[in-house]
Amino acid sequence: MRTKAILTSVASFLAVxxxxxxxxxxMGTWKLNEAKSKFAAGAGKNHTVVYAMAGDMVKITVDGxxxxxxxxxNEWTGKFDGKDYAVTGDPSSDxxxxxxxxANTLTFNVKKGGKVTVNGKVAISADxxxxxxxxxxxxxxxxxxxxxxxxxKQ
Length: 154
Hints:
Number of helices: 1
Structural class: mainly beta
Shape: globular
Number of strands: 10
Radius of gyration: 18 Å
Strand content: over 45%
Strand order of the largest sheet: 1-2-3-4-5-6-7-8-9-10
CATH architecture: Beta Barrel
Distance between the termini: 47 Å
CATH superfamily: Calycin beta-barrel core domain
Helix content: 10-25%
Number of domains: 1
């Protein structure tokens, strides 16, 4: 009887945890809305961003174009706990650290060689249909930049 109660409690906990992750408004595929976005001169653009669960972590897959129009692809897998996790496929960064501020807001830092090069904020709209990513930092040429990218949920 006691084992059944423990198993029921564990199953209930896992179900609630799964529902709370599934309800995360960040999850899904986001497409860039260039008409609503503002980029620094010569900035690359992330056209598609996908947030998906990867076990107890989140995987973010980014596809876009660099300043020369060449296709880019990078991936990050980690938690929204403020700790650095490795980035693959992005020559301008080694790690990213995301922090969940509230249900609809994340902040992040991008690092190269242990130095923060970009920081930003991801804000999901109240209706969950769009997200705005604001970034500021230094580009690969050492120039200051600020971008505002607006994405629509697919």
